[in-house]
Design goal:
The protein is an alpha/beta fold. Helix content is about 50%, strand content about 15%. Helix 2 links the parallel strand 2 (about 30-35) and strand 3.
Amino acid sequence: MELKDKVVLITGSSRGIGLAIAQAFAKQGANIVLNARKPIDETVIAQIKHLGSDCLALTADVTNMDEVKQLIADIISNWGHLDVVVNNAGIVHDGLLNRMSSSDFQSVLDTNLVGTFNVTKQALRPMYKQRSGCFINMASVIGLTGNIGQANYAASKAGIIGFTKSVAHESALRNLRCNALAPGMIATQMTQQLSDKRQTEIIEQIPLKRLGTVNEVAQAAIFLAQNDYITGQTITIDGGLTMQ
């Protein structure tokens, strides 16, 4: 897919990986739709526009189907089409399973997995009509391996991987594609909160001996959007951590 003038929605794109993906698509000449539950800072919007792209910032909670329906309607009203959806919105509520509350388990599934379902479902209709487009869903290596204290997060991300494959099968009938990215340990605000000792322990487990960057995840998103013959796949970006 040629990305110039295409319309790209990135959920959870006010910072971190989501914002890096938005910036990467903007550099390709795409029109960008930023999304978050709260209003996005004007400086973030200005950063995207400075790259030469049109940018629309829309507030919507991906767990709320009515808000998601309006989100997609606003995009179509503004541009008339939607070409790429990056389902990036996600949260964590870590804790050992025997201490994890039902609300902490459910809230992570609601945002990460149900949110991906909500956005995909609403975006399918305009994409079906135009018979083109692609979805990129943000999974995680934790969805492949599991992790202590992250049963809820692992379940949500494993669910996204299965969901991605099913959507890929269904949407291929209309020339749409659906893939997932599974980042490993990426240098973000979250990882910066870890102690130096913990970061060192993690890096020692990674064959490439370093954390990944948000730009490296963004580059993988661009690759999946541009390649018209890849669908139903989960691409790991983890420095070799989960190689088999």
